[in-house]
Fold this protein.
Amino acid sequence: MTTRVRFAPSPTGKLHVGNVRTALMNVLQARSTGGTFILRIDDTDLERGTQAYEDGIRDDLNWLGLHWQETFSQSKRFNLYDEAAEKLKEMGLLYPAYDTAEELDRQRKLQAVKGLPPIYDRRALDLTDAQKAAFETEGRKPHWRFKLSGNSVSWTDLVRGEQSIETGSISDPVLIRGDGSYLYTLPSVVDDIDANITHVIRGEDHVTNSGAQIEIFRALGGVEPIFAHTPLLVDKDGGKLSKRLDSLSMGQLREQGYEPMAILSLLAKIGTSDPVEERFTIKQLADEFSFDKIGRAPARFDDDELRALNAKILHETPYAQVEGRLDALGVDGGEAFWLAIRDNVDVVDDAAGWNTTLFAPMAGMIDADDKAFCDTAAELVGDEADWSELVRKLKDNTDRKGRRLFMPLRKALTGRDHGPEMGPLLRLMGADRARARLRGEKA
Ligand code: GLU
């Protein structure tokens, strides 16, 4: 049986690190088993979903390299959901309920007073035809609830191990709203059956849903897939990420200059027994992927860790991969420039700063004590702007070595006290500029 997995976002917002992690887990499961990754758009809520969000989701997944092999949208498939709903109604498993939001609220309050759990008491099942007709005449539209068995439903979760949900302890889920629209529960099951989904991989906020959904799978004559519910993401102190999700959207992270593989490396490794390290391809992540490595504790998302991974990835990134972006930054110096500075950038945009340092007119920093030494250096810079040669000559002609020799040169030539290796920098800035800067002139 080949693996078929799906990522099923609702187009009601932007993709953020939380749902990208779910998408990634699905992709890694597919890639590590030679399976198929399906993008399903859960747009049954026609009021809240927008085309713009859907387009954004597709763009973000493509940018990340999380390409799908099949895709479909739920809004094109209402006939299938209607058929399934009819079937459940005929089986007596989908029943109309006329309770208003206020009535349900009152019911829950009464239950709370009596110390009972807030479970729907199924009063709708006792309605006579006459009572239903009376509601209809009043203009009430029923919503439809799935009748849970009341038994316990068990499955072996790939992350959480043996799971069981007492369906007697949850309310019969509403599958169809009063306005006839579907909540995600039923369409998801119908689609998972129809698309032969083998694994449902999603966040652990869906664990309780799985209890109800497994009963729906069985009622519709399907076989439930294997489930894997991954722990949620928290921030580095263990706090909720929910307030920061906007700033952790793919659009924002992309704007801040993060590389797709930095984001994916972090999301693949946090909360697992693997060390958090940079990886350069999704294939590498897939080769190392296993549900056995995923722990039960929440996975900590740390922005600093993301930045560090990003830097490490850039340190190994060839020029061809960043050429377009460097051009867009208006950076000069081509490949030699990139290779000279890539060890000193966290994000590609940092290249602009080094570009200014090297090529924009600037007078370096020269301390009074170093003035004579720098003048000597200016005289000794050969036309080739060769760093080793300059250092050798300075050692021969002055009493300086080590830090006392190198630091004044770095500060005079770059205006900074740390940065890339001086050899490539000196060659890039050229002899004339170097001499002028060493003399304290703006060049
Ligand atoms: N649209 C649902 C969600 O975003 C899908 C959940 C699932 O993967 O089954 O939560």
In short: The pocket of glutamic acid is lined by residues 8-10, 42, 184, 188, 200, 202, 206 (CB under 6 Å). The longest strand covers residues 36-41. The chain is about 45% helix and 10% strand. The two ends are 68 Å apart (CA to CA).
